[in-house]
Amino acid sequence: MGLFHEFKQFTVRGSAVDMGVGMVLGAAFSGFIDSLVTDILLPPVGVLYTRMNFENMFLSLDGSVYPSLAAAKEAGAATINYGLFVTASVRFIIILFAVFLVVRQINRWKKPHQHPLHGMTKKECPYCCMPIPTQAIICPNCSSSLETNPSPRQQVKTKWRIK
């Protein structure tokens, strides 16, 4: 039972859950990115490069000339598929940029000392009725003090005891 309990603790831990969600989103996002690169971005780039299809750009290592990559593969020729490499590189850069944007936005929402839910939940200022973060003690809109009880630091007075 100890192994199961330890596994449960690992899966419930925030980093493991975040990693799992990231992997699922990455797999779902991959199909979208593949379509974006193959169907939208690479055809105009191919037109710029004298109407070449990137997926048919290859070098045959046996010295023969083949009309397409499929014909070279069918003949059993060894090929260097640099067109497929260019396609994969563009996909990688787009995925990397998309992940950067997502992480950047998450870091904007989350502050180092703050729980992630606190950054997304709001309360209403009783004075100006504007939405503000739940942890706010001063309204950023009207500058009114929202804290009714003084903080514990303000209540504690330093006392000197001399014996």
Descriptive report:
55% of the residues lie in helices and 6% in strands. The strands form 2 sheets. The protein has a two-stranded antiparallel ribbon. It contains 6 helices and 4 strands; from the N terminus they run H-H-E-H-E-H-H-E-E-H. It is mainly alpha-helical and 163 residues long. The two termini are 58 Å apart. It folds into 2 domains: 106 residues, Non-ribosomal Peptide Synthetase Peptidyl Carrier Protein, Chain A; 33 residues, no CATH class. The mean pLDDT is 76. The longest helix is centred in the first third of the chain and has 35 residues.
Q: What structural category do the secondary elements indicate?
A: mainly alpha
Q: Which percent bin holds the helix content?
A: 55-70%
Radius of gyration, in Å, reads 29 Å
Shape: elongated
Largest sheet: 2 strands, antiparallel
What's the CATH architecture name of the largest domain? Answer: Orthogonal Bundle
> How many domains would you count in the coordinates?
2
Distance between the termini: 58 Å
Keywords: Cell membrane, Ion channel, Ion transport, Membrane, Transmembrane, Transmembrane helix, Transport
Protein name: Large conductance mechanosensitive channel protein MscL
Subcellular location: Membrane
GO molecular function, one term: mechanosensitive monoatomic ion channel activity
Question: How are the SSEs placed, and which strands pair?
Answer:
Blueprint: H1 2-12, H2 14-48, E1 59-60, H3 69-75, E2 79-80, H4 82-109, H5 116-120, E3 122-124, E4 131-133, H6 152-155
Antiparallel strand pairs: 1-2, 3-4
Helix pairs in contact: 2-4
Membrane topology: Multi-pass membrane protein
Keywords: Cell membrane, Ion channel, Ion transport, Membrane, Transmembrane, Transmembrane helix, Transport
GO cellular component, one term: membrane
